[in-house]
């Protein structure tokens, strides 16, 4: 099959083959391109979609972007089960195998240093949401008898919200400290926008933790013990992922 070369990740040579049914971006199975003792995992993609101009246009198409990102992530997930991949950015494309080799040579030192640091490690994501308070609007609130009553009701509502966010902040800070002490490294990401994530509640912690694969079970148990610990706080765990948050400028 002819076409451009789509690059998913760079990693060290690995002996375990990827699943035979694995399909990459644009439906082409990924393959290993070995160079200078490193491996670039690539597949062929059509120029009509992945040349510079059409790719720029496609990145504005949410449906196309979602499908491509899903295929990209599927390859990264498959790699994560057999090796420690260093993921490259979505849409990393070269003209041919020679272009991929040139890229490896130009960034070889950085790739080797980062792969050494990430070897045998995976990323776990932890999010904490402060659940919305029960709505009392199922039936209209009792009308304030006076301006003073109205102000008193407003002060009580404000105090209740302040207490809830203080509780959420205290819980998420304590959890992050505990998980960071267990993990080898951690990253705090900005809270997710609920309009984009569609998650309920307010995201008060959005963090990633770098954990040795051999200690992942202990990390999962540590997170699980916190679920339900504080009423109104929802803890979500995702992973294990390739170490996107810790790959530095290589991603």
From TrEMBL:
Residues 132-159 are annotated as: Disordered. Signal peptide: none annotated. Keywords: Gas vesicle. The keyword Transport does not apply. Transmembrane segments: none annotated. Its main location: other. It is found in: Gas vesicle. InterPro entries: GvpL/GvpF. Belongs to the gas vesicle GvpF/GvpL family. This is GvpL/GvpF family gas vesicle protein. It comes from Streptomyces coeruleorubidus.
């Amino acid at each position: 099959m002819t076409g451009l070369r789509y690059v998913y990740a760079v990693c060290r040579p690995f002996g375990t083959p990827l699943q035979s049914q694995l399909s990459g971006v644009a439906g082409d199975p990924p393959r290993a391109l070995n160079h200078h003792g490193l491996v670039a995992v690539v597949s062929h993609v059509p120029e009509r979609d992945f040349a510079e101009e059409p790719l720029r246009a496609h990145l504005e198409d949410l449906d196309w972007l979602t499908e491509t990102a899903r295929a990209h992530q599927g390859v990264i997930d498959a790699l994560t089960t057999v090796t420690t991949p260093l993921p490259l950015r979505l849409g990393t494309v070269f003209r041919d195998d020679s272009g991929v080799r040139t890229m490896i040579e130009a960034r070889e030192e950085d790739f080797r240093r980062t792969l050494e640091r990430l070897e045998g490690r995976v990323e776990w994501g932890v999010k904490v949401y402060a659940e919305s308070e029960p709505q009392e609007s199922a039936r209209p609130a009792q009308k304030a008898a006076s301006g003073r009553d109205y102000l008193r009701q407003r002060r009580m509502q404000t105090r209740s919200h302040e207490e809830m966010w203080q509780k959420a902040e205290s819980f998420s800070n304590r959890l992050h400290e505990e998980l960071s002490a267990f993990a080898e490294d951690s990253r705090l990401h900005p809270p997710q926008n609920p309009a984009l994530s569609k998650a309920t509640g307010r995201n008060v912690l959005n963090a990633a933790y770098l954990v040795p694969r051999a200690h992942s079970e202990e990390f999962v148990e540590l997170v699980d013990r916190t679920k339900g610990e504080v009423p109104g706080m929802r803890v979500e765990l995702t992973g294990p992922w390739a170490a996107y948050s810790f790959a530095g400028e290589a991603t």
